[in-house]
Amino acid sequence: MTLRQNNKLRLAVLISGGGTNLQALIDRARDARLAAEIVVVASDRADALGLVRAQRAGIPVHVVDYRSCLQRDAAQLASQELPVDLRQLDRTQNILRQQDSKKRLLHLGRLVLAEKDLLAVLRPYRPDLVCLAGFMRLMTPYFLSQFNREQELRVLNIHPAMLPAFPGQHGYEDTFNYGCKWGGVTVHFVDEGEDTGPIIAQAGYPIWPGDDVETIRQRGLQLEYEVYAQCVNWLAAGQVHVARRASGRLYTVITDPLYRTIVSQWLQQSLT
Ligand code: GAR
What we know:
By secondary structure, the chain is of the alpha/beta class. The chain has helices spanning about 20-30, 50-55, 65-70, 75-80, 85-90, 100-120, 140-145, 170-180, 215-235, 260-270; strands spanning about 10-15, 35-45, 60-65, 130, 155-160, 180-190, 200-205, 240-245, 250-255. α1 (about 20-30) packs across α9, α5 (about 85-90) crosses α6 and α8 packs across α9 (about 215-235). About 40% of the residues are buried. The model is unreliable at about 1-5 (pLDDT under 50).
């Protein structure tokens, strides 16, 4: 997939919290280690510290009030104009698994309303990529369909575990509590499931005796910063190709001749 060969990508970065991944992208964009420009930062929480980081860097920020959207009751939802048919959307999503279809459709409708606001915020900035960086909300296929085309995927996520192990919101805790001897970080395209999309890159780190969740989080975060920026650069260079296995599953091939060197460097970094 080539988005803008030899050109800077326009990134929209979505956050929910501290924003150290955002900061790493800002720093790399500033000193030209990133082939991209961050054109907008949006958060689902007004108190996300990452918003301050973005403002300090002169990047426009927006808050989309997910909490109030998710509190709407069925009557409020019915009075709103939804941009999609919820039943149809429900057939393509794999993020909500409640048995009760009424509850599921209600939740889906609330998410779509929040996403409608989010899209209105992002659209004027014409992002090439949407990068989730600690954004703790599920994306529905409605949101994704506004950016993705068949095998041209444009929404990325950084996940703090070696997927497909430990999807969800507590990657470091789950890795540590399971007793893993190695942890990992994953950058992947977002698809209709929770942390199930095609993997772009992964890096692992050892878990030593005496480590705790905080020490492994710090080790992992240092890797997250490197791997996320590298994936953006590969996309900017047209070096991420999406293909399909016979099973139907999408996967990626990185065509950077330096791929092995870069992955070896991540391994070295994790050992020092
Ligand atoms: C990061 O560890 C990121 O991988 C994780 O949240 C943290 C955000 O930190 N994301 C998820 O768990 C997504 N499921 P940051 O705000 O300092 O970048």
